[in-house]
Each structure stands twice: as C-alpha cells, then as structure tokens.
Amino acid sequence: MSGRPCIKGIGVEALREQLAGLGAPRWRADQVAGWLYGRGVDDFGAMTDLGRELRARLEEGFAARALEIASARTSVDGTVKAVLRARDGALVESVLIPEPGRTTLCISTQVGCPLACAFCATGAMGFARNLRAAEIVDQVCQMRRLLPPGRRITNVVFMGMGEPLLNLPAVVAAARLLLHPKAFAMAPRRVTVSTVGIRGRIERLLREVPVNLAVSLHATTDEVRDLLVPHNRSYPLGDLLETLRGLEVLRRRRPVFFEYTLIAGVNDAVEDARRLAPLLRGIPAKLNVIPMNRHADSPLGPPDDARIDRFVGEVAASGLAVTLRRSRGPDIDAACGQLALRPPAAAAGAAAGG
Ligand code: SAH
Fold first, then answer.
1. 195 in ligand 1 pocket by Cβ < 6 Å?
2. Per-residue model confidence as pLDDT tens digits over 125-181
3. Residue 317 and residue 224: Cα distance in Å, rounded?
4. Residue of 14, 18, 66, 328 with fewest CB within 10 Å of its CB?
5. Atom of ligand 1 nearest to the CA of 215
6. First to last CA, the chain
7. Taking residues 336-345, what's their average pLDDT?
8. What's the 216 CA to ligand 1 centre distance in angstroms?
9. Does residue 314 have its Cβ closer than 6 Å to ligand 1?
10. Is 336 an active-site residue?
11. What is the average per-residue pLDDT within 6-12?
12. What is the model's pLDDT at position 331?
C-alpha cells in the first residue's frame, strides 16, 4: 500500500490550501471535493475538468481511497452490512438501512471499542485503534456503491463500531465534511452522533459541528447503568444529565435522542419505565427503545413481546415521546450491537431478531 496521505480526510478549507500549494487556484478544491464526495469518483484521472497537470499532481501526492469493501451481505429485509478494509489491513463494518422514504447509513468511528458495554458485541472484541477522518467519510463513499438502484443515502448515524467521542477530532472533521456544501452537503438534522457520554466532550462536539445528538442511556439508576455501561462509573447519570440540561447549544436544536436497549430482567420493569420521564425532565428528549439483539458474546437477551409493549406503553403514558425500534438485518448480524466482524459461518445461529 502506498504511503501517500488519503485526500478524503482533509477539510474543504485545508484542501484549498493544499491545492494552492500545488499552484492551483483555490476554487479547484471545490471541484475536487465535488468529484470525491458528490460524485464518488476515486480516480483522479477521471476528474476531467481539472486539467492534466493538476490530475497528475494529485495522483502523485495523494491516495483517493481510505477503505475498500472486503465483503458485503444483504439481509432479507434489505439491510446491507459490509466489512471494509483500511490501508493497514484493519477491518470495520458499516450498515446501509433502506426504509420507506429514507436510507440510513450507520458508520463506525473506531476499530473495535474500549467501552465494553455488557450487551454489545463490538465491546466484546476490544479496542484496536481510532479511525482517521478519511476512513470515517470513506465509509459513505464506498457504501454508496452498494445502494439499491434509485436510492441515495439520506441519513448518516455515527452508531457503528466504537465510541465517537473517544475519537473526537476525526469525528468532527468527518461530520464537517458531511455537512459542507461543497462536500456531501447533508442537512445537520440528517446526521446523528451517538455516545454513552464522555465528560466534557458532548459540549465540545456540539460547539464544533451542529449534528443531532443521541445518548445511549439504557438504565435509570447508576446501579444498573454501572453494570451495562462500565463507563458510567467515570461519568454517572447525574453528571451526564446535568451536562445535557445545561447545554445552551441544545436550546436552539432538536431533541436529544436517548437510546434504551431493553434487556430481559435487567432494565425492563414497569418501575424503570416510570422513572424515565422524571429523570429526563428539562431536556428536550425522545426515547428510542431497542429490544436487545442477541449475540454469541452475551448471555443477555430481549424481553418477550408482551413485556416490550408494556414497557413502551408505560413510557408513552408518562408523556415522554417514545419509539420502538424494529431490529434491522439481524439475520446477517447487522443489527445494533452485532457488529463484531464475525465471519458468516460463525454467525449462523447467533442471529435472533429483537
Ligand atoms: N458508542 C456509541 C456508538 C455506538 S451506538 C454509543 O454507545 O452510543 C451503539 C448503540 O447500539 C447503542 O446505543 C445501543 O443502543 C445499541 N446496541 C448495542 N448493543 C446492542 C444490542 N445487543 N442490542 C440492541 N442494541 C444494541
């Protein structure tokens, strides 16, 4: 693999500087960004309006691709999971989720994850390294090739492997490219970053880029959250929620999406459901309930349908906006918490819908 830096992680402003260094006028950067991100062209030679000289210089100086698709599988429900290989051989997963009226891409921010949440397969594989900004945005470029005809990516969620706020500079650079009018030109409300909450970093993220915020809550007491999300011991619920209440930046923004993975016998009691609305008071909140998807690394599992309905019903009755999230792609281990780079053979039998 060549040692040339990948051009994709470079912000549009920095790209202008780089191209100025190659003797090209600054507006050339907008053209290059249009090819790379707008049209998804990775071959500098095919960027026909750049001029031969500049095309050759770009070819010399940069690699266009940070990732290549190593394998991909499609679920019976249309969800596509791909394994992508970085230039150093590291592997990550991305998931395309076609739905009526929108297509969401779920992208990874780290190779593995250091948080070790009790119900998550990525946590069980441990942590290898942070992804670079180029590797985060190239998931969008490469996964676009797997879209069914007539579809385009309408939403991007940073909800794949890894904890985005433990890789903040790369995540911010990637999110800026998603929003930049000369790059992916996505609307801020179409881009969501999900986090368990890292002290000081939610504020930094939202100061730097106006994305949607999703917070992985999963419990209403520190006792239970300590067990499910070990990082809660460093940043307990009271501190996390106080941060969210205090965010000036949130007042002008959309609600915080709280994720709640529902686990049989752990966090699915009526008392848990009733504690949620009071706990989140003062925060513009929406709750997404995700029945736990089973996987081989955890003895935990989802409650039965009657218990799920009862939980969601209690939350709704308390006045908190709540949505039950249907599991997508569980037959190919593409559902939330199932991204662990398992080969298809080993995955057989482990899949169970939530
Ligand atoms: N580290 C970040 C980004 C990953 S998003 C975060 O935790 O927010 C991961 C989301 O997947 C979590 O919110 C959780 O709701 C969900 N998840 C993880 N494991 C799951 C499982 N086994 N079943 C259902 N949802 C799961």
1. yes
2. 899 999 999 999 999 999 999 998 889 999 999 999 999 999 999 999 999 999 999
3. 23
4. 14
5. 8
6. 41
7. 69
8. 7
9. no
10. yes
11. 93
12. 81
Question: Tokens for 159?
Answer: 């909800």
Query: CB of 240 within 8 A of CB of 251?
Result: no
> Has residue 233 got a pLDDT over 70?
yes
What was the pLDDT predicted at 250?
Answer: 64
Question: What's the chain's average pLDDT?
Answer: 92
For residue 123, report the distance from its CA to the centre of ligand 1, in Å: 10
Is the separation of the CB atoms in 339 and 122 below 8 Å? yes
For 148, phi then psi, to 5°, come to -65, 155
Measure the CA–CA gap between 305 and 238, rounded to whole angstroms: 31
| Residue 91 scores a pLDDT above 80 | yes
Between CA 93 and CA 107 the distance in angstroms is 7
Q: In this structure, how many other beta carbons lie within 10 angstroms of the beta carbon of residue 83? A: 18
Nearest CA to ligand 1 atom 24: 292
Q: What is the DSSP letter of 109?
A: S
Eight-state DSSP code of residue 135: H
Would the CB of 196 count as within 6 Å of ligand 1?
yes
Residue keyed to tokens 């529902």: 262
Establish whether 106 is a catalytic residue: no
> Ligand 1 centroid to 324 CA: how many Å?
14
Contact present, 124 and 138 (Cβ < 8 Å): no
Residue owning the nearest CA to atom 19 of ligand 1: 337
Q: Please work out, in degrees rounded to the nearest 5, the angle formed at the alpha carbon of residue 331 by the alpha carbons of 217 and 139.
A: 65
Look at 34-38, 259-263, 344-348 and tell me which has the smallest mean pLDDT: 344-348
- What would the pLDDT profile of 315-328 be if each residue is shown by its tens digit? 999 999 999 997 88
- CB of 70 within 8 A of CB of 91? yes
CA pair distance 233, 219, nearest whole angstrom: 13
Give the pLDDT of residue 321.
Answer: 97
Neighbours of 17 (CB within 10 A): 12
259 lines ligand 1 (CB under 6 A): yes
